[in-house]
């Protein structure tokens, strides 16, 4: 190990944030030869008891971490990419987007039930307008009778609603449960054909100040180029829809391969009213983007098609 001082990694205090930051810390330590210490930072999103859609969603878990970066309290920070606002501040660099985990949503239900086996009137908890919209749309089109219930809190809190009988099921992100070692509690993985994930879901963002070239170069070792272009396309779609990360927008860019050779990238987007009665869902396929601008263009093109089909009117208040 180096005799240089430890690198300070800013992280939220939640169990999931600490788990994913711990994994990044280990990887950064390997590429830099320096120890990495976690600096726990409380964000507004962690302390507010309001629902995320009410407090704006965009940036509520990010601002305090970014302030710590800019003040020099920490050297770099780890975010869940889906929490990042789509506009990147000039003074900060998105140094690395590591290989993405499973982007799907999952169901944790009582009695090991799958989504389609839930009883009539089943109460399903989620804090996400995106999940609410798509769950209700799927239920309507498949003759299922469900009630979506707004919840928030950490994984323990959410799964606790099932154990104490308040809810029949909750919807969570597969990646989060994987990172804290609780995938065995999943009773159903929701196909992306059923529910498109949030833009950037399953991916992490490693951020540092833009003028620290040597740290950016070191962190870049952890970057996965395919993950980066995919999430760039997804976030470009979100930005072009002028929607915040609490809007009912789902997006997923995936690579289409012929055997071992990656041929194209497909970008899918969905937006809908939370009651599931009106949805705009489209996709586009093209060459795998090789630059940030190409990935951004893919997202913008699909967003303009969605807007032409009335997507703006389905999102409620658009982000300012």
Q: Which key terms come to mind for this protein?
A:
320 residues, alpha/beta, five-stranded mixed β-sheet, 10 helices, 13 strands, 32% helix, 25% strand, globular
Estimated radius of gyration:
19 Å
Oligomerization category of the chains in this entry: single chain
**β-sheet strand percentage:** 15-25%
**What is the β-strand count?**
13
Task: Give the CA-based shape.
Answer: globular
Largest sheet: 5 strands, mixed
Task: Give the neighbour order of strands across the main sheet.
Answer: 2-1-3-10-4
The rounded distance between the terminal residues' Cα atoms is: 47 Å
Helix content: 25-40%
Detail the topology: elements first, then pairings.
Layout (H helix, E strand, L loop, with lengths): L6 E5 L3 H18 L3 E5 L3 H4 L4 H4 L7 H9 L4 E5 L11 E5 L8 E5 L12 E5 L2 H13 L4 E5 L4 H9 L5 E5 H6 L8 E2 L14 E6 L3 H7 L5 H16 L8 E10 L2 E12 L6 E9 L4 H17 L12
Parallel strand pairs: 1-2, 1-3, 6-7, 6-8
Antiparallel strand pairs: 3-10, 4-10, 5-8, 5-9, 11-12, 12-13
Helix pairs in contact: 9-10
Describe this structure in words.
It is built from 10 helices and 13 strands. It is of the alpha/beta class. It is globular, with a radius of gyration of 19 Å. About 2% of the residues have low confidence. Helix 9 runs parallel beside helix 10.
In short, what is this structure?
With about 325 residues, the chain is an alpha/beta fold. The chain is built from ten helices and 13 strands. The chain is globular and about 65 Å long.
